[in-house]
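This week, work through this protein record:
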Amino acid sequence: MLSKLAVDFGEDVVRRAGKLLAKDATEQEARAVATRLAKEGAAKPLAARTAKKSLAAKPEAPAIVKRVSGANRRALSDAKYDAEKLARQYPDIAPPTLAVDPKSGKEFLQKTLSPEAEVFGEARRAAQKDIEAGSYVPYFNPEERFYADPAAYNLQGDTLVDAIPKRPETIAKYEAMAYDPAATSRLSSAYEAGLTHPGAADWYAMGQLEKAFVDQYGPDVGRRMFKERFADSMAATTGGADPTANLLMASYGNMLKAAGRDIPKAPYELPSPIGGRYGATNMAMFDRLINRGEGLTTANPKRFNFSANFLGDRARSTIDEQMSGLFAPGMTMPPGVSYGVFERALGDLAERYNVPPANFQDIAWAGGKLAKTPKYRPKSMIEIANEAVERTARVTGQDPEEVVAEALVKAKRPVYAKGGLAVKRRASR
């Protein structure tokens, strides 16, 4: 049967399809899988379907792509800010401005940009425009991205067991929502739409960054630090944040912790470009989970699974606001203690497509986003990290490898985004 398909799809696609298919798969099922793989691109190292505790072995790490940033250093000679200073600390924080909430009429202290932050923001936006035009070489080759090895992390807890209601009638109520045919149709449509975009697949494949931690600290400490400074920190600061803002908040929290400094309490105390819809709330969560050592448990199932996915465990799935909306329009998170019910429904649907739950979720997430924002271009998390590294290197005069080592791995320096919050600018005096 597979030899017949090789004529239509090529030997590489058929070989990979054979690894995903069950032994008793029909020709129709085989053709469907081969079609999907052909759309994704045969050259890309996608994950094979695996059991929960023994997911695919990590391939040999690819060579790291680097670039020389001397030209950027020369360009910074005319900059209107101190690049060397901002390579080591965030921009100055201006005093807040008294403002009035247009809805409630209540006064509040509004975050304000300092002159330094405003000028530096313009430089970051200019750098990002060039990056988005494709004028850079990624530090980590996204075409060779691979997963962290989940066997190296002793994850305790199972949201499919721990995050479900106790009463059978309550379980039945949420199963009716999770398995509703309309929900299944929305999820399937989103997944199939996401398949057409290479950046949607293998979103959680961060083995290249894990390797940077291991190279710096050794296998045991390196993986412990990768879990804390990336996977768990991203999970702690994910609330209401896009992936770039999420990465920046995680990096900022890690830098404060490494320096022995406290987490700011008020939004206006956060330096630009740190923040977002729930910036202060996310940083408070970082303080609880990371600084105070409460850690991630299945009591917070979305954050727990988000971290686990970054650690290479694809048998779990992250059901965030967007995925919740695919189950039921307007739903922002699984209600009550029902996360495990919705996760099981997603896992059953992933089974139909012969992919692990996390690999269904990342593609369906992108497909759902595309339906709402047609101009959206899916980017894997390693691409988002690449852009942050390049952007930071360009505006501070560092080499990309310095940014990876000193900012992402050692947590000694800032990581920057293209802009920041749309906040009031403070005029120079």
About this structure: Residues 70-429 form one domain. Residues 317 and 358 are 5 Å apart (CA to CA). Confidence is low (pLDDT under 50) at residues 42-69, 421-429. The beta strands are 97-100, 107-110, 112-113, 424-425.
